[in-house]
Amino acid sequence: MKQLIECVPNFSEGNDMSIIKQITDQIESIEGIKLLDVDPGKATNRTVVTFVGSPDAVVDAAFLAIKKASELIDMRKHKGEHPRMGATDVCPLVPVAGITMEETVVYARKLAERVGKDIGIPVYCYENAAFTEKRKNLAYCRSGEYEALPEKLAKPEWKPDFGPAIFNATAGATAVGARDFLVAYNVNLNTTSTRRANAVAFDIREKGRPQREGNPVTGKVVKDEKGNQVMIPGSLKACKAIGWFIEEYGIAQISINLTNISITPVHIAFEEASIKAQKRGLRVTGSELVGLIPLKAMLDAGKYFLKKQQRSIGVSEDELIYIAVKSLGLDDLKPFNPKEKIIEYVLQNENQKKLINLTCKGFANETASESPAPGGGSISAYIGALGASLATMVANLSSHKPGWEERWEEFSNWAEKGQKLKDELLLLVDEDTNAFNKIMDAFGLPKNNEQEKALRTKAIQDATKYATEVPFKTMQKAFESFEIIKAMVLFGNPNSITDAGVGALCARSAIMGAYLNVLINASGLSDKAFANNIINKGKEIEEYAQAFEIEILAKVREKIKIA
Fold this sequence. Notes:
Elements: E1 4-7, E2 10-11, H1 17-28, E3 34-41, E4 46-53, H2 55-72, E5 88-97, H3 101-118, E6 123-127, H4 138-141, H5 149-153, E7 174-178, E8 183-189, H6 194-204, E9 209-210, E10 231-232, E11 239-246, E12 251-258, H7 266-279, E13 284-290, H8 295-308, H9 317-328, H10 338-341, H11 343-347, H12 360-368, H13 376-399, H14 408-443, H15 450-491, H16 497-522, H17 528-559
Parallel strand pairs: 5-7, 6-7
Antiparallel strand pairs: 1-4, 1-5, 2-4, 2-5, 3-4, 8-12, 8-13, 9-10, 11-12
Helix pairs in contact: 1-2, 2-3, 6-7, 8-9, 13-14, 13-15, 13-16, 14-15, 15-16, 15-17, 16-17
């Protein structure tokens, strides 16, 4: 897998977009970098930029961005709602694919060293890149903010990890880190009071609030025997939060950083903030996503809210996202575009032609054209997807059938399985065509000498092997759908039993069609042991599929009283 790192630098400028454009131009000047998001905030006077690329490219792009920011942003003039200590306030690296956190730390420190040495900015390493336990906490590194830097840098305990211990009046200092995927998330309140927003933030954040004697607001802060404040923990782990007023929206918000969404997901943070706000006489009106969010976080949120309604979660990805957006109120302040806010969607190549993105008519026309692809393998995968879709439809109808309310979860589980199979089979529609194209590319390789001939022969064999494995995977996935189809015939909504029967016909046809592709591709393999093994396994699946089809159709006819 290709190594990918995400970088999310925060620049202390949110109003002059010409400055941000010059910075992002530097980022995009590095080959292999994809700029994912630029999210300016006027009240915070801060812009969060997100880009992704190979580790070395990310380090180069981040360095150029930090350098340009130091030239264009004058911290002596900066004012904003968000804590900050430098022109580039923070610059975290986040492992995305094919790379460990330990490896990401190496690149973060490499960037920090380069910034300190070549630009002359004091750099503190935080989170996983920190050299000391205290400096893991970004808030500790940034304590006192920009204004405290002259005094801090004069103290030995505040010696930067990299760069000079000398106050840089215009650029300030920078924190460079390596961290897990962080979701920056703001919850909107029906108040203009920063104090009340802060109270809710202290209720939920992991750190909590200081314990006080007597009055919880004005009482004397309780300290332990070492003189440290005694804290009352908040209700959410892996959660940092403060309250602020956003002038451009005219409301107060709870500004939340979720540092580990596997511990505290976005939807749990929203629900907890809503509960705590209500206890203080406030109401949550919606929320706002700053930067990007992983697809899984949105899907999990959609499923969570559907379960609360006792509705089936076995619905499409698009519907889950829609439910998440509406339930979290992510479109409260401005439109929410999933293609711009979900990281997997942003990384998709919009120019890549995909069969599954065609209309039904377009797909049929493409198949009927003189092009050899899509062919029988892609069609088989698509038929299989339709079979799984029909079974899923019956499960969803059964889940919502009047009088069957107590069985909603049973059918929801079936529908969720069906959606997963449907999505996997849809991917195989294009993958079968991709496999065919790999063979054609291999045949097009040069063969001018013995070395080239050997490489060409190996490439053809590798591509042919893959082109055999793809339709076999179609057979396996289509066969898995029989379990759902049979359950829907036996126990599902009786009004939709024939739909499940058609699903069985689709699954059987998908398996038999894909098996033809397995046979023809396997016949061209020099690895006869592999070829014979996959042919025999395929034959077994085909025989079982035909038997299942006969059994299921007999049940359908029996239930609809047809001899």
